[in-house]
Specification:
- By secondary structure, this protein is α+β, with helices and mostly antiparallel strands.
- 26% of the residues lie in helices and 36% in strands.
- It has a single domain, classed as 2-Layer Sandwich (NE0471 N-terminal domain-like).
- It is built from 4 helices and 7 strands, in the order βββαααβββαβ.
- The strands form 2 sheets. The chain has a 4-stranded antiparallel sheet with strand order 1-2-3-7.
- The protein is globular, with a radius of gyration of 12 Å.
Length: 86
């Protein structure tokens, strides 16, 4: 399961498009609620949070501080928005 695109919001939510054309949202505050260190930096620092980008080689999302997330975990922990028709 690869992530094709990501859009960060000002409320620490990510809008994601997966390779199956499904759009989902992930609330980083809830997803990383118990984490510390670099993960907490992504969760608590809006400037760092908004550095999110696609790692096209791995098909996942990553941040400037070196954090990346498994795309399958992101998929299953995110909430569907809508699916683009083929």
């Amino acid at each position: 399961m690869r992530i094709n695109s990501v859009i960060p919001t000002d409320s620490f939510k990510l809008i994601l498009e997966f390779e199956n054309k499904e759009h989902r949202t992930l609330d980083i505050k809830s997803f990383l609620k118990d984490d510390t260190g670099k993960l907490a930096e992504v969760r608590d620092n809006l400037i760092m949070f908004q550095t999110v980008k696609i790692d096209s080689r791995a098909g996942t999302i990553c941040w400037d501080n070196g954090v990346d997330l498994d795309p399958e975990i992101v998929y299953f922990r995110s909430v569907p928005i809508w699916r683009k028709s083929k």
